[in-house]
Each structure stands twice: as structure tokens, then as C-alpha cells.
Amino acid sequence: MTIRIQTRRFTRLTNAHRKKIENHWCAVALFFMFYNFCRVHSTIKTSSAVAFGLEDHVWTIEELLGLLD
In whole angstroms, what separates CA 61 from the centre of its chain? Predict the structure, then answer.
């Protein structure tokens, strides 16, 4: 439900659709990385990756986009 609400690709308002599935998968992967590593969740007061012990700090957007290079 979170993906559908926060990602406009999943709320279809017209008959148009994405032609390249690779672009769709990249957008979904980028959303998941942001959601788990950058976004501070209100219930746990940190990111999911920090809460599970995968990281020691909440990532910035610059760190996330640095992976694209």
C-alpha cells in the first residue's frame, strides 16, 4: 500500500503506460532504497536499515545518488 500511495507510477490516471520495463524497475528500486535507507520513519525514529543494524547512520540523498555513478 505504501508503494502505491507514494509512487505515482502505480496510480494510473490515464490509459498511457510505460513502454520500457527497465525504467519501471529502476524507479521501483530507487524508491525502495530511499524508503529503507534515507527516510526516517515516524514510529521507529530512524530508517529501517539502521533499525535492523544494516547501517550505522541514515543515508542522505547524495549518498543514495552516489550509487548511480
Answer: 11
Residue range of the domain that includes 43: 2-66
pTM of this structure:
0.72
SS (H, E, C) the chain: CHHHHHCHHHCCCCCCCCCCHHHHHHHHHHHHHHHHHHCCCCCCCCCHHHHCCCCCCCCCHHHHHHCCC
Q: What domain count does the chain have?
A: 1
> What are the tens digits of pLDDT across the range 10-44?
666 665 666 677 877 888 888 899 999 999 999 99
